[in-house]
Structure formats: structure tokens, C-alpha cells
Write a structure and sequence with these properties.
alpha/beta; Rossmann fold; Four Helix Bundle (Hemerythrin (Met), subunit A); 4-stranded antiparallel β-sheet; 14% strand; RNA-binding; ATP-binding
Amino acid sequence: MIRIYNTLSQQKEDFRPIQPGKVRMYVCGMTVYDYCHLGHARVLVAFDVITRYLRHRGYDVHYVRNITDIDDKILRRADENGETFTDLTERMISAMHEDEHRLGVLAPNEEPKATDFIDEIIAMIHQLIQKGHAYAADNGDVYFSVDSFDGYGKLSKKKLEDLLAGARVDVDQAKKSPADFALWKAAKPGEVSWQSPWGDGRPGWHIECSAMSTKCLGDTFDIHGGGPDLLFPHHENEIAQSECATGHHFVNTWMHAGAIRVNKEKMSKSLGNFFTIREILDSYPPEVVRYFLVSSHYRSQVDYSEDNLIEAGQTLERLYHALRGVIPGKDVPETDFDHQFHEVMDDDFNTAGAISVLHGVSGALNQARRDGDEDRIRELAAVLVRLGGVLGLLQQDPEAFFKAGVPDDLSAEQIEAMIEARANARKEKNFAEADRIRDELQEKGVILDDSREGTSWRRG
RNA sequence: GGCGCGGUGGCAGAGUGGUUAUGCAGCGGACUGCAACUCCGUGUACGCCGGUUCGAUUCCGACCCGCGCCUCCA
């Protein structure tokens, strides 16, 4: 039985999908006005692992992750760049896909964009007005009336009165209550807009997710996830909109990833302390970044630092070393390691524990190597690749992993030729020449590994 | 101020009412022409103070400290 921590109940619960064997999951994706940063990568990778694991356990997962392609920040950025907002969003969407692909994140089943769901959004707003949960204000905006929904605050555990008492709630004359939020925003002159019964405008941020998730997954679905800062107000507002519009319970399990921090502060756009995925990938192999993210639990905070990335790289190398030179066996049945892996992953996707199982496999594999037990080596290699694959790791050919990133000015053939020259020098006991060749290669970023079987090489 | 989360060995990071993951670094060893790499072995821990218990790092309470949300942010 898989257990998942539910933000709604604040505890781990047995996971029972609405339809046995099928999981319907929605995750809030990117607002595409800039490149993805590490915080986005965390959510992307976390829910990728969750999807992979659920599928590994036999569930048919329908994973929907939206793209917010219209909002204030997009319009402002497009204006600053002197480009149309669609040029900007298309560029950022393809950049996002590139980043995801490099991190080994599988594509969701559906990737709805807000601008493709304007009709559904308008229909839902219309429904909310009819049921008395929303109202058109004098300024052309349409607001959700927070007072009309008794359940408001049940996800974030906030009381409406506390929210109203807070000084940071926007006081807007057009709103009946300061906590009300926009469903439809009237267009300013010259702004991109769509026609609606309440005048030209565009959707508010929260309504798009309600409209798209309902359209793609139905009124009630299993899992809704996202980043830690979406819990309030975004997800709280989604619940209010959806439950008021459909009259049904919205989501069974709410999942939130932990924040990425830099120097003890949350990595965020507003603090400006964020690292984009692409700039991190300039310095570290993508799989190392993924390993770093997966090595701690998805709900915990993690600190981004050079040291942590370097350590992740060293640890990943250890696992690939175990696989080096082995052809994994085929159709290897489940082992005790698989069971251990399932046990920790069943417990709210404990990827840190899962990685420890991976190290257990690699330790056993090394033992088999010492024993010279070829069958056992091939069996364990298969298990390691299989379980690693559930985390989206260890799917590369080990040689490719070790040799990636070698400077272009040195071809594999040249390296092999130098290795051979060194081997000859060593045979003639000309160690000065042998060491000269070794040093020369090291200077160029190539490290030689001597072993009984001969010499292999990898990037430095 | 309101709500929520957390404090584990030098570092990263799981977990558990008693047998104390895993990795990195350190140390010892094997291997090596010498090294590096690799492999094997190995020590150190549960913020503070009370309570419950035969026994608490694990449960309960207080305290200290850190963090997140309450405003756009994954």
C-alpha cells in the first residue's frame, strides 16, 4: 500500500485512487516568461519520480501539467523585450522542454495552455456568478466572493478573519471583501484580450487551473501537486472555484514539494537569488543535478550549493562505477532489493531511502565482482539499472557517462593512441615517458584508470 | 501578529520506543612501477529541559534556534 502525505489532512494517508489502478494527477506548471530555475526543476523532477514510481507499481497514470501562457508578468516582459507575448511564451516553452528533457523528465500526458481554454474558463466564471459565488465589479473585473465558500482556508489552514486582519491583503475598492480574488481581469487599452460577457479581458491566474484540471481530469481527481509557494493563495483559490462551480469535492490528495534554498533563503524570483537550470547545467552534468534533487525527500527543504552538487557527482560516479564493464542480465526477476526499494518508496516516495537501497545493490555487485560470479554480477547490474530507472537515474551507458564532457580538441582515437604509447613505455620500464603522457592527458581533462584488465579513461 | 514545518555524527541526508540507513570527507588496508581511480574495513549523532516508560534520538509538554506561507513566485 502506497502512503502519501496529504497537505489537506496534514498526515500520511493510504493512497486509494478513485478508479482502481488508475491515477489522475494534475500539477501546476510554469508561467512562461523566463527560463526555468532550480525550484522549477525540483517540482518537475519530484512529480516525474512520483509518476515513474506509480507506473512501476502498475498504476495507469494520467499526468496533466499546465502551462500559464498569459499573465501580467508575461505581458510586461514581452513589452520590455519588444516582442509579442506569444513569441516570448513560445520561446520559453521550448526552452522549458529542452531543460526537462536534459534532466530526464518524461513528458506529461497532457500539457494544457491557458490560452487554449478561454471558453472553458469563461464558462466556469459564468457558472460561479450564477451560483452567487462571483460578481462582476464596476471596473470590468470579475471577482470570486470568498465569503460565499465556507471551506475557504481548509488547505492552508488560514482563517478568513486572520487574512482580513493581515496588512498585506490588497485593499481594492472594487472588491466586496479584500480577500476576494480576480477571475477575470478587464483589459487596459491596447492590451491583449479576449471577448467575454463582462467585456474584453483575460483570465485571472487561479481560474485557469480549475478550468483545465476539470476539463482534463473531471470534477474530482486523485492528486494535485505543485511548488510550496502555490499552497496559498493559488491552491486554496482553486479549491474554492472548483468546488463552488461543480458542487463536488475537488481533489483527494494535495502534494507540495519543499523549497530550494540558497544561503538559507528560499530561491525565488522575487528575491532574485535564483539559478536557472541551464546555467547550472553549464557546470554540472544533468544527471548529477537530478541525483542531487532526488537524494533528499521531495517535501524537505534543500540547500543549493556547489559542495552539494559536487558530492552528488561523486556519489553518482560510485554507482556508475559498479555498472562499468557489465552487460546487465535480461528479464531478471524481482529480488530482495526490489522489495526493499518498494518498501521505502511506498512510504511517501522516500527517494533518499531508495538511493540507499541502490547503494546496497552496488555493494553486492562489487562483492560479486570479487567473487568472480558473472551471473550474479549481471543480475545485480540489471536490478541496479531497473531501480535506478524508477528514479530516472543510471540509464546511460557507463562509458558514456564517464566520458561525457571531454574537451573537443582531443578525440577518443587520439586518447586511445596515447594510452597505447604509455602502455608501451611502461612495458619498457620507461616510467618517465609513461608519466609524461599521463600528466599531459590529465592537463587536458582526461583521467586514466589503470586496472588489471588494462587502462580506461574518463573525463576529469 | 496568525498559520505551518524543521533542528540527526566534520558535512549531506533517511529512519526508528530497545538491534543505531546511505553517501561525501577522514583514517587503516588491498591493488599499483609510483600514483590516481577503484574496492574492502572503520570511528564519531540524534537542539535544551522536564515527563511517560523497564528503556526515548524516536511519544508528551515547555523552552531555545532556524525556515516557509500570510503579496507575484515552483
